[in-house]
Amino acid sequence: MAWKDLVIERRSKETLNALLFFSLALLFVFQFALGPDRERLASALPGLLWLGFILSGVLGLGRAFLVERENDCWEALLLAPGDKSAIYLGKLAGSLVLMTVVETLVLGLFVVFFDVDLGRALPGLLLVIGLGTVGIAAVGTLFAAMTAQVRARELLFPVLLLPVLVPVLLGTVKATEALLLQEPLAAVAHWLKLLAAADVVYLAVGILTFDVILEG
Amino acid sequence: MVAVPLIRVAGLVRVFGAQRVLDGVDLDVTAGEAVALLGPNGAGKTTLLKIVATLLRPTRGTATVAGYDCVRDAEAARAVLGVAGHGTHLYEDLTARENLAFWARLRGRPADAEALAAVLADVDLERHADVRVRTFSAGMRRRLALARLELTQPRVLLLDEPFAGLDQRARKWLEARLEAFKAAGGALLMATHSFGRELGVSDRLAILAGGRVALDTPRAGLDPQDVQRLYAAHTEDAS
Fold this sequence. Notes:
heterodimer, A: mainly alpha, B: alpha/beta, Rossmann fold, six-stranded mixed β-sheet, 7 helices, 10 strands
């Protein structure tokens, strides 16, 4: 499933191109809005970074099941005998790869645009980004499946997703803020635990309920 | 000895809002038999196929495939089902070979190069094996969709307008495949609007009208004019 999604994305480049242009536009807007004031930047950067990740994630995840609507492939997925959670995990893996590519580029551009010195914070930051991305993708993949067959899915998807992502947003922004202020990883251990717990809960719910969601 | 039906539909009712699309449908299809479902638009042919395919729940009544209830044992029923509906179930940006490999793997069937090449050759698409489906004509897509079914070797086939969009050569190929499928003990239920040679593969005709099977008759001895006459008589009665 992940292989299929990535091959289709590599050939069509529909989602990747859209996400990259969107992220770039977002960075330009942030740059103009904040200006060169270092103090304002320091306090706003963690939130802006995750706003970029979340918005591009919402856009990408919202499209995750659109390819299955083409030629009634959704119907054929439903008809495939066996554990449907494998389809969920495959879709999740494909989304994770795509989000990782976009986040890597966004992070790189953030460093360039805002002249941020990640330095010692980078390993810890990568851990936070990894945990946050799994959480966003886990619940996003589930909700994307839930809303894929709904007429107002573009509206419904973020409305459902964003409130559920509050623990992830809180944990990632707070941990990123501390790490960018050069605090040690141990100082954000409680936020990392929250993110890990959220990931486990989202993944478990996704695996256990995907069958019911796919059946409609 | 009485043949055990591979498809059994009993007292099937399906209501959409205020509309009673199926109103007590009874139908059996035994192993080695093909039944053609005829009926005007909105008669419930696709709805009936979707219920037997486990894609839609009936409001009342039962449908079983190879003895498995299509609601309670849907997973077991799906393992023996092959379904080709209005959609081709093909990914536009995958090649013909990649599409077949993906669906075979998802159904736990062998997807080695040899098996895929044999199936593609069978539907006369071996020269297009590594071409994206996006560039295929309607007939090529249809052939590839049917090749997908062949690869998964179902015992029960549910086909909605299987001959639509096929040229003469592909029609002959499909007729031969469906005859071979029946000879191997498979059961086939297909919805069609055609009264012509497409019905040649079917052993029985079931005309759906007014939410019920208005006529269930052997096809042998009926020419297209007879079918047309029966169809008109039963669908006009119902309307």
